[in-house]
Amino acid sequence: MKTGYIYDESYFWHDTGSGTLYLPSGGYLEKDVFSEDPATKRRVNNLLERCGLMKKLQKIDPRPATRKEIELFHTPKYIDKVKLLSDTTGGDAGDHAIVGRGSYEIALLSTGGAITAVDAVMAGEAENVYALTRPPGHHAEADMGIGFCIFNNVAIAARYAREKYGLERIMIVDWDVHHGNGTEKAFYNDPNVLFISIHEDLNFPNNTGFANDVGEGEGRGYNVNIPLPPGTGNAGYLHAFESVIRPLADEFKPELVIVSAGQDPGIFDPLGRMRVTAEGFGEMTKIMKEIAQKHCGKKLVMCHEGGYSNAYVPFCTLRIIETLSEIQTDVEDPFASGSNGYPDKVYDHQKEVIEQVINIQSEFWSTLRVQV
């Protein structure tokens, strides 16, 4: 089976207005490249076409999510707010969650892309799927949008998978540089979903993503935060994957694996301070693929989240899709030399954070107790 690839031209037409970095332009802020710009995603498509990989993928068209499916996580009042903004003047649906004219329908299609990806792997139409979803979703909470996210694509897709397919163990790994606060809240009391967020410590949103936030009630131990120090590169990320994420997967034994794939830990991202390269994203994908192959018949869904370097996101995403499809193109990372001069190793302060996570989570997971 081929690797499935989901996108729709509408994703690139979600209009977040003009701005500079993550703020609207005006006053002393001269208009520049707004971070949540369609160019990063459109350039992924362009690169896939240019190198010939697109022809070797299984193109899958997304369907719009239904209102009932959006209500698997979001409140009716919030959904109504997004639709009203979309139908009228546009505006902010919460905290830096810009809704443009027509964005409601595009957001439904973005969430529908995640749902379509779940259906594809569950039906055996593809072993794995990369969904180039936009707008992103992992910050969106039940009653408000946050950080460019309108509807929480991955959280809704996971709840959909449980409802339609009766799955009892879903693993979500969020490697976006920013904490997946919305997805965390969706499953904070839920022992059927193991949520792991590996992110830059104290970046965004404020006051979330702490290692001590382990879930509540029956969900205690099923929420895992790995808040890495700024400057962490491939070696630090892979150390966390091998020492925390893989052992947890082996004990949890997921029936479906979903990844919130934000490429903003990339070394050139304007909204992150990490040093992951395209090669690093490929290695992280390899581990997730091995987990899915070992435990759930290769059922792996990846949904695009952040990533704001127009130049670098396409090459990082290409490495991910090459790894998923096991098709190597002739494209080399043109920016690989930019990581030279800073040794890529696991530094002591990074080890300390990962060891702290292991110590905290070892209360709940026997595979981690063996390591302590």
From TrEMBL:
GO cellular component, one term: cytoplasm
Domain Histone deacetylase as annotated: residue spans: 38-322
GO biological process: epigenetic regulation of gene expression
One MF term in the entry's GO annotations: histone deacetylase activity
Superkingdom, natural source: Bacteria
Family designation: Belongs to the histone deacetylase family.
Name of this chain's protein: Acetoin utilization protein
